[in-house]
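Example record for the data management plan.
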Amino acid sequence: MLLFASDIDNTLIYSHKKENISSKIPCELYNGETISFITKYTKENLEIVHNNALFVPVTTRSIEQYNRIKFGNFIPNYALTSNGGNLLIKGKVDDSWYSQTVALCKHAFDSLTKGEEFLEKDSNRTLEVKRVDGLFTYTKSAAPQDTVNRLQELLINEPVNVHYYGNKVYILPNTLDKGSALKRFINTYLNNIDKIITAGDSVFDIPLLNAGNLAIFPNSLEFNPLNEYLKIKDSNFSDELLKEVIKHL
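Corresponding structural encoding:
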């Protein structure tokens, strides 16, 4: 069986702010407004992949944010949310998975609190400081690079990783990443996987991209993959990605 494990945002779906995306189909509503789109080609072919392989979304989104997404006429059998901290099985939260995640991450919770106390006082902050699904810290900054630089200095010897993406700032336990979660999922639930294709577009996805047999990512993401990889153009990335995945069915 083929396993296709993929990031969601800017990999399979796009913000309503994204330009030059053809055949937009709304796929996420928030407060009655469409905030994300999927292309017609991606929607149709993602359903083909779902029907002929195992499609597992892997996202930093919280459970609540993930549940807003409608990929099409199906619900993925499995999904890893909260940067891999939660497992959904046919839309239902696996409590045992979450308990295991908490045990893996609890060594970093004091460090998260330390970072949160710093962020509460950060003049760059533009959003409340949140502990996402009890596992990692998230906020937004008007000067994310500056915020992250000072956070990294504060937490240099702490068991956490600090990242930013756009204006979003994250503090994550060093045991909470998409690649480790995918490996844990495979070891726990699967035994008949022939090939693993992974896809993503950001620094959060690098552990995921390194966890499969074939990593697919846009030209804009720069890193040295540990496995076979394919870089494709950024424009209409989701369509180009699905074209490649379909070839392996």
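Summary line stored alongside the record: The chain has a mean pLDDT of 95.
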